[in-house]
């Protein structure tokens, strides 16, 4: 679990390798839990949603939040492309998510499939 999370951040700009299922799913679970906790702790401590900006400290926090969200998005994009490579598919299959409902379901199925020998290994 910890090794998968380290690989998630160490390969933030690596779009040409492969990623095992655990390298995809553990960071997804950890980032969801950590994000949920941070948002709820912040909301409880300041008394308003994290998206509302009332003063300069809220603006600074929003800027920092946007930077973190971008970095997590980039790392998630790269691990998703590497996971698709592990199932012997091109990274362009990520666009499958643009098809409403069915595309997203099929994409989840692709992420669950076991890896196989491929041209990216």
From TrEMBL:
<keyword id="KW-0812">Transmembrane</keyword>
<keyword id="KW-0472">Membrane</keyword>
<dbReference type="Pfam" id="PF05656">
    <property type="entry name" value="DUF805"/>
</dbReference>
<feature type="transmembrane region" description="Helical">
    <location>
        <begin position="91"/>
        <end position="113"/>
    </location>
</feature>
<feature type="transmembrane region" description="Helical">
    <location>
        <begin position="59"/>
        <end position="79"/>
    </location>
</feature>
<protein>
    <recommendedName>
        <fullName>DUF805 domain-containing protein</fullName>
    </recommendedName>
</protein>
<dbReference type="GO" id="GO:0005886">
    <property type="term" value="C:plasma membrane"/>
</dbReference>
<dbReference type="InterPro" id="IPR008523">
    <property type="entry name" value="DUF805"/>
</dbReference>
<keyword id="KW-1133">Transmembrane helix</keyword>
<feature type="transmembrane region" description="Helical">
    <location>
        <begin position="24"/>
        <end position="47"/>
    </location>
</feature>
């Amino acid at each position: 679990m910890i090794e998968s999370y380290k690989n998630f951040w160490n390969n933030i700009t690596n779009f040409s390798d492969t990623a095992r299922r655990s390298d995809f799913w553990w960071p997804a679970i950890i980032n969801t839990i950590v994000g949920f906790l941070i948002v709820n702790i912040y909301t409880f401590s300041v008394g308003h949603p994290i998206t509302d900006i009332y003063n300069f400290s809220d603006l600074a926090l929003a800027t920092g939040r946007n930077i973190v969200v971008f970095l997590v998005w980039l790392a998630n994009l790269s691990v998703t492309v590497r996971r698709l490579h592990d199932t012997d598919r091109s990274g362009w299959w990520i666009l499958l998510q643009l098809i409403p409902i069915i595309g997203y379901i099929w994409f989840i199925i692709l992420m669950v499939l076991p890896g196989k020998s491929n041209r990216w290994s």
